[in-house]
Amino acid sequence: MSDSTVIDSVVPLSEAEVRRIRDDFPILATAVNGHPLAYLDSGATSQRPRAVLDAERAFATTLNAAVHRGAHTLAAEATEVFEDARRSLARFVGADEDEIVWTSNATEAINLVAYSLSNASLGRGGAAAARLRLGEGDEIVTTEMEHHANLIPWQELAARTGATLRVVPLDDEGALRLDEALRLIGDRTRIVAVTHVSNVLGVVNPVEQIVARAREVGALVLLDACQSAPHLPLDVRALDVDFAVLSGHKMLGPSGIGALYGRRDLLEIMPPFLTGGSMITTVTTTTAEYMPPPQRFEAGTQRVSQAVALAAAVDYLTEIGMPRIAAHEAALGSRLLDGLRAIDGVRVLGGGIALPRVGLASFDVAGIHSHDVGQFLDDRGIAVRVGHHCAQPLHRRLGVTSSTRASTYLYTIEAEVDAVLDGVAAAIDFFGARA
Ligand code: PLP
Fold first, then answer.
1. For the chain, N or C: smaller number of CB within 10 Å?
2. What's the CA-to-centroid distance between 418 and ligand 1, angstroms?
3. Residue 7 — very low, low, confident or very high, per pLDDT cuts 50/70/90?
């Protein structure tokens, strides 16, 4: 949960602590284009500490086996660490272990929910799943600021079921129109899909109010926690959401692993998304009985080493403390935002929104394409993201086709933020773009 009062009262990480943390990340000691790497692209994918790299390797070298199959010792031990990993992630987000479904990433987790609802709408899941059916007259609510991963699956669900997609607009600054959200969520709304933290603006959305409105009308809420779970204390029960999704590679874990949190009573009635081995109890040539959740949603051979490594990542984050990480990043985020806003010709997308933020800002530099900004910074060893960040509607609403995004993490130091600021100012001089 993004409780700013909690974060305000904690002591941010000291410079010395961050230096020690950096020593855990081998890649941060490397050079790029002759400069020490300044990695400001953790919003896209984060770097991994030795504890995570070692956990994945240790699994592969001593325990590798398929889980929930096989009676041999390695298979049993692999199953045990796989389920331990599920427990670790459940603790990290405030859920019970059987409410965590492993997926490849957040994108798959959102598609899992959308396809499951779609299957329920086709009558799959029987009477138990009837209350999940969508059809004409029903509405799905999402927002104009979503990552495409939390937009297209709902467009597709609407197209398959005849439901209508309603999109909460943004104001001219890029903030969610909360008044419109509360108006659009009504008696016809069946599910509300909203991002906790924008991957472009870095603002923490007031999801509590959206959830409260959804509760009033009996709609489900799916929270895209991709940009919050890595950076803020997250408690899915305190937020009272029905589903939450995250990606391991954004929170110090490996790629290829993500998770869906789903409220137990919902997972229990949801028909499966992917089908096949490992998710069944009895199969005939024409029928199949499915396992209870979470296994019902984990068809096929699982990503065990990735799950084990993600558990090492959440242990690492927990040990340092999410409130302290959030405080560290809030300070870096302010430095980044203030610095960018002080540069003539730079427009920070959503820079004027008065909401708590993580350490992430996207900006447009007048007269210079974001790819040129990105390449100029890269020549100095600075890694940032350029493009539309999988959020074309948001960029369109703000009148730009692309932007440059700098994003921090627990291992980011002030000098790296300053390097971005100096680099942007130098790019403006280099390209002769100063007004
Ligand atoms: N949602 C948000 C807010 C994101 O930032 C991202 C990734 O950038 C995603 C969803 C999709 O994550 P993945 O590509 O790991 O599935």
1. C
2. 27
3. low
